[in-house]
Design brief:
The protein is 43% helix and 17% strand. By secondary structure, the protein is an alpha+beta fold.
Length: 196
């Protein structure tokens, strides 16, 4: 996704327009428009928790080989200053404290052009197991399949997979995975406002 923030339609509406174009060598069969709908579903799940302010979806469209997602710009809702960081942190903590069963989500999603499987591993799985099985090892396999991972990178991913259970707090069991997309967007909005 590439983001642009701009005022459109009226001086009272500020939006973020996210554009995603299909890569020339994309092996992923997911259509661009379905990727945008994946994000809409993730935002809806986050909004339903009432923990973190979530942008309203203004519209979704596909034009030629580009998906367009128009979202409310939350930049003006995140005032600069230390209170913004504290409020954001509390909201993220509340979001991640909601118990809904196993780690995972009801559909797959993408991090950029990288597909992510969100299927739960097993009942009662923990955070480290989910991260290893659904993030670290698939990334390692994607690097191998693309011919991009050298021995040092692949060994580092193996070490990370082995060490995650000892690095992360044990006993963490939770939640429907809420996409990191909104979290990173909110963080960047707050950070940009704080730096201005």
């Amino acid at each position: 996704w590439r983001d642009w923030s701009s005022d459109v339609c009226s001086s009272d509406l500020s939006v973020v327009v996210k554009l995603s174009a299909a890569g020339p060598r994309s092996k992923d069969s997911t259509t661009l428009e379905s990727r945008a709908h994946e994000e809409v579903a993730g935002l809806g799940a986050i909004a339903a928790t009432g923990t973190v302010r979530t942008p309203e979806v203004i519209g979704v469209a596909t034009l030629e080989r580009t998906s367009i997602l128009v979202l409310e710009d939350l930049g003006s809702a995140c005032p600069p200053g230390p209170d913004a960081w504290c409020s954001f942190g509390r909201g993220l903590a509340d979001l991640h404290a909601i118990p809904v069963g196993a780690f995972g989500f009801r559909h797959r999603n993408h991090l950029g052009h990288t597909p992510q499987c969100n299927d739960p591993i097993a009942p009662g799985d923990d955070w480290a197991s989910f991260l290893v099985e659904r993030r670290v090892l698939p990334m390692k396999n994607a690097l191998i399949d693309a011919g991009r991972g050298d021995a040092v990178d692949l060994a580092a991913l193996d070490r990370l997979a082995d060490r995650l259970p000892s690095i992360l707090p044990s006993g963490i069991r939770r939640s429907e995975e809420h996409t990191s997309e909104l979290q990173s967007r909110q963080y960047l909005v707050c950070r940009l406002l704080l730096e201005k």
